[in-house]
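re the bet — no i am not wrong, look at it urself. input seq straight from the record:
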Amino acid sequence: MFSKPSWRILLLSTSTILGMGLSAPMARADIPDENYRPVLSHLLGNVMPSKLDAFHKASQTLGAEFRDFCDDPDKDGLDDTKTAYHNAMDIWQEIQPWRMGPMVVNGRDQHIEYWPDKHGTAGRQFRKLMFDKPAAYTDPEKLSGASAALQGFPALEEVLFADDHGAQMIEADEDGVYLCQYGTAIATNLVTLSAELQAEWPEFATAMQDAGPDSMDYPTAKFAATDLYRALHEGLLIISTQKLARPLGENAEDARASRAESPLAGRSLRNIEHNLIGLFAIYDGKWGDVGAEGKGLAALIDSSLLNRSFKLNWQTVSDTVSQLPPSISEVLEQSDGYERLSDLKGQIEFLTTLVENDVGGNTQLGGGFNALDGD
């Protein structure tokens, strides 16, 4: 009986096939600038707006659930609010890697999710907040001008999932009442932030689609499409160098699940699973029930074998994540947990290499840069 091949054998075998002359971007003529326009139109004009609508709707539901819970706090209401948090966080994690335009203007992505928090800023500020209980931070408008570390999903995670906060809110003691007021303000501010994204995206998308000599920001459609490639490349780098490398540390003894994303809510790997959904949409063009296969960056690749192999590799990584528990903490508790997470990190790094060499080369959008370093 043959043993089941490992992911390394599978990925390397397809890479070897591609290396036999099929991914040779230097031999290709330049892709006409007009070929990039349908990709821009599809991803920015058709696909992303519906996902921003979904994020806004999920944020509204979260805000409503939080208000209802705080009006009459009980365990069922707390559970419903946590479910609404997870649903909103799922769609945020899918759009999170699309770091461009309105997503990042004025640090909006950090106001939605302040992470990574390398110096524990949020924890310190939260403890001071609960000691002082300033009334201003129960006002969504005033909260929007506060530190990003006291806004968004991580702050709401602290309110909902940390220590005995849920019990305090149900008991409605002094801390619990303030937590409810503060949490409601955070959720309401998320509704505002998601509405701003909705409102500002169409103008940005139009500017990208209208790239050309008359544009001050995007002189060519290829220049505009490079932002999409950067988002794909950078998104994978963030998964490997931050979302996995930080909690894994230097070795098994140095591993700390607390350094992962969303540790209190127990969804660090669930976040990565949804990241991969949003990132794959950039390549493939289909995002759940929105969009169409082959209309993303894949439309610029003229090798059907390369396209099939890349999709197979991506599916292998997605399957690995889906078969793991939702939190890094749960995996690290297993005897082989550190090895499994290190293996996943290696898969993500290999996928990043395929993006750099095959996608970047064949779409002529890659330049060998490290998006996180801004090279």
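see?? Confidence is low (pLDDT under 50) at residues 1-7, 12-26. told u. also The longest helix spans residues 174-209. so pay up
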